[in-house]
Specification:
single chain, 320 residues, alpha/beta, three-stranded antiparallel β-sheet, 38% helix, 18% strand, globular, disordered N terminus
C-alpha cells in the first residue's frame, strides 16, 4: 500500500470518527431485541493507533460503554512494532522550533508520494486536522523527544519521535489511559463477520479464545452494538491468499508485519457490501532478509545504507 494511503487510514480516524460516534449515540438497538450475547455503545475492531484514537474520540463525545476487540494475544498490532514516527504539520513542537510548514505543503507531499492516487478531500482533511492529535498524546501521557525530524518524501521536518523510539511508546500509554477510564479491551477475540440488519451493521460475530497459530478458538458468539461498529484493523500483508487475489505477482513476497496482519475484516466488509478501494496497491521496500523473519537487523542495515548512498550521490564528483 502507498505510504500516504497508509498514513491516512491510521491517523485520520480521530478527525472523521465523529460520524460513527454520532450514530452510536443515536442508536436504539438493544441486546434483548437482537438476542446478542452482549451489547455495547460502540464496538471497535483493532487495538492499534486507529482503534485507540477512535476510543479516545468516543469518550470525549460522551460514550461510556466502549469495547475494543483484538484477535492476537498482545494488543497494539503493527502499531507497537513500528518506529512510532508521526508526521504532523503545524504541531506545537514544530512551531516552537520555528519550522515553516503548511497544510498545502503537506498535501503536496502526500500527492507526490501517493503518485496522485490520494483521495483529495481525505488528504486535505488529514493535513488540516493532524496536529490535533497532539492534545490526545499529551493527555494520555505519551512522552516525545524534544526534536522534530524530516523523513523521506517530506519537504520539511514535521515528524514527532516517541521517547522510546517505538510505536509501543504511543500505544501503551494511550491503552492504559483508556482502560483507566472504563474502556474494555478483549484480546484473542477474532471478528469473523459483520452482522447487518435492515442495511445497518448491528453487531459482530466473533471467535473467543482464538489461537492465531492453530486457527482454533474456544467458542463462537455474537456481540451487538447500540450504535456502531468501527473497523480499525490494519494491513493484510501476511495473508498470502488475499495478496494473491489482489496482486498475484506479490503472493510469495515476505512481509515484515506481525503475523496477525491478515484479511478477515476485509473479507467481512466485502461480504457486508462495502467496497474498499485500491486493494491491489502495496508498499514495497528493502526491509527484509531471507535469513531472518520479519524486520530484523538486516532491514535497518539496508535502510541506513540506502540513506548514506543517496546522500553520497547528491555530492558533486562522488564516485561509487
Amino acid at each position: 500500500m502507498k505510504p500516504s494511503i497508509s498514513i491516512k487510514r491510521r491517523s485520520l480516524l480521530q478527525g472523521i470518527v465523529a460520524g460513527s460516534i454520532g450514530s452510536a449515540l443515536a442508536g436504539t438497538v438493544s441486546a434483548a431485541e437482537t438476542n446478542y450475547s452482549e451489547s455495547h455503545d460502540l464496538v471497535i475492531v483493532g487495538s492499534g493507533f486507529a482503534g485507540l484514537a477512535t476510543a479516545y474520540a468516543a469518550l470525549k463525545a460522551g460514550l461510556k460503554d466502549i469495547l475494543i476487540l483484538e484477535k492476537m494475544e498482545a494488543f497494539g498490532g503493527n502499531s507497537c512494532l513500528c518506529g512510532g514516527l508521526m508526521s504532523l504539520p503545524l504541531s506545537p513542537k514544530q512551531k516552537a522550533l520555528g519550522i515553516t510548514d503548511s497544510v498545502e505543503l503537506m498535501v503536496g507531499d502526500m500527492y507526490k508520494a501517493g503518485r496522485g492516487f490520494n483521495h483529495p478531500s481525505l488528504a486535505r482533511k488529514f493535513a488540516e486536522d493532524a496536529a490535533s492529535v497532539c492534545g490526545m498524546l499529551d493527555e494520555c501521557g505519551v512522552e516525545l523527544k524534544d526534536k522534530v525530524i524530516r523523513l523521506g518524501g517530506h519537504s520539511t521536518p514535521r515528524a514527532l519521535v516517541p521517547a522510546s523510539a517505538s510505536g509501543g511508546g504511543i500505544v501503551v500509554p494511550i491503552h492504559n489511559w483508556l482502560k483507566s477510564r472504563g474502556v474494555q479491551f478483549r484480546n484473542r477475540t477474532q471478528v469473523t463477520e459483520l452482522i447487518v440488519t435492515d442495511g445497518k451493521v448491528r453487531g459482530v460475530r466473533v471467535n473467543e479464545g482464538y489461537d492465531w497459530q492453530t486457527g482454533k478458538s474456544s467458542r463462537t458468539k455474537t456481540i451487538g452494538t447500540k450504535g456502531a461498529v468501527v473497523v480499525c484493523t490494519g494491513g493484510w500483508g501476511q495473508d498470502n491468499s488475499f495478496v494473491k487475489t489482489t496482486m498475484p505477482a506479490y503472493a510469495l513476497l515476505e512481509c515484515t508485519s506481525q503475523p496477525g496482519a491478515t484479511a478477515e475484516m476485509l473479507r467481512a466488509l466485502l461480504k457486508a457490501g462495502a467496497l474498499p478501494t485500491m486493494l491491489d496497491m502495496y508498499q514495497l521496500g528493502p526491509w527484509a532478509s531471507p535469513d531472518e523473519k520479519g524486520a530484523g537487523p538486516a532491514s535497518f542495515f539496508a535502510t541506513t545504507l540506502l540513506l548514506k548512498v543517496s546522500r553520497l550521490i547528491r555530492k558533486p564528483g562522488t564516485v561509487i
